[in-house]
Amino acid sequence: MNDNQRWLIRHICDGDIKRARQQAKIILNETTTSKDQQFKKTMLNLLDVKLNQLELPINIREFLTVENPSEFPESRFLLRPEEAKIVELVLKTSRAAEELTRMKIAYPPSLMLYGDSGCGKTMLARYIAHKLDRPFMYVRFSSIVDSYLGKTQSNISKVFNYVKTIPCVLCFDEIDAIGMARGQKEDVGEMSRIVVALMQELDTLPNSAIIIGATNRFNELDTALVRRFAIKHEILPMTRNDINALAERFFQYVEIPTEEWLSDWCNVNIAESEPASIIVEKCTRLLIEKIIKMKVKE
């Protein structure tokens, strides 16, 4: 048995299907015997499809969205120094978690992002998945919460059972939808039990799952739930320099020169501390106007 075969078996035993597929691709590419060439070609074609697409089971497609990390538009993304430090910490923690797995110590890396609506929490989570080259799993709470308590808990369980089978970045956007503090006046027993169910499921995740929560109501979250997230980071509003930098990256991405006009346009059209999502929306509207003018000239 050679080293490549050993690594393949190790990845399978660790439940890391993506790396197992990558290792199988390495082994196939090293295969040179003539009788195996057709098999090699067929399997490589299948692996190329599997490595770039992830098909969700039918029973959770309503609750979970999956995105290919390779499709993240990194050249259009503005990573500020404060967020760069958090990303590096998550990447280092993820590598440490792999070692802890071999020591049989449970410690899935976890990050809680909080800040104003539209400040870029989910985009940062997508960027982390991109840097880790892991599928980005996005939980849709609007679908997962059911009028029947038992049904909601069952839906949550289905999502976690699937996530345990594949290394990924699991994002709970607007986690406050089911993670509010228990014991408040408006609290009902059913929602408290859902919070408990969510925490219990989080405690069962393997180290190969990176958990990211996002909220604009951080102070209202259940404190026991917040404790499940080892790293906590507030995304602050953008400065004027940040706004100009994000707009510049947007137009550079679509190959539109910005030297003579962009700074003045940003000062007039984008207010101080404008959310990142609004900045991108305004840049997109301007891009549409430019495209329309170009089409008219043609």
SSE blueprint:
Layout: H1 3-14, H2 17-29, H3 37-52, E1 64-67, H4 81-102, E2 110-114, H5 121-132, E3 136-139, H6 141-144, H7 149-163, E4 168-173, H8 189-202, E5 209-215, H9 223-227, E6 231-234, H10 240-253, H11 262-269, H12 276-297
Parallel strand pairs: 2-5, 2-6, 3-4, 4-5
Antiparallel strand pairs: 1-3
Helix pairs in contact: 1-2, 2-3, 4-5, 7-8, 10-11, 10-12
Structure overview:
The chain is of the alpha/beta class and 298 residues long. It has three domains: 3-52, no CATH class; 58-234, Rossmann fold (3-Layer(aba) Sandwich), CATH 3.40.50; 240-297. Helices cover 53% and strands 10% of the residues. It contains twelve helices and six strands. It has helices at residues 3-14, 17-29, 37-52, 81-102, 121-132, 141-144, 149-163, 189-202, 223-227, 240-253, 262-269, 276-297; strands at 64-67, 110-114, 136-139, 168-173, 209-215, 231-234. Strand 4 (168-173), helix 8 and strand 5 form a beta-alpha-beta unit. The longest helix is centred in the N-terminal third of the chain and has 22 residues, at 81-102. It is globular. The mean pLDDT is 86.
Q: Say what the CATH topology of the largest domain is.
A: Rossmann fold
Alpha-beta content class: alpha/beta
Per DSSP E runs of 2 or more residues, the count of β-strands stands at 6
CATH class of the largest domain: Alpha Beta
Order of helices and strands: HHHEHEHEHHEHEHEHHH
Describe the oligomeric state of these chains in a short phrase: single chain
How many separate structural domains?
Answer: 3
Q: Which spans have pLDDT < 50 for at least 5 consecutive residues?
A: none
User: Could you give me the name of the CATH homologous superfamily of the largest domain?
Assistant: P-loop containing nucleotide triphosphate hydrolases
CATH architecture of the largest domain: 3-Layer(aba) Sandwich
Strand order across the biggest sheet? 1-3-4-5-2-6
Question: Mind telling me the C-alpha Rg?
Answer: 22 Å
Percent range of helical residues: 40-55%
Distance between the amino and carboxyl termini: 64 Å
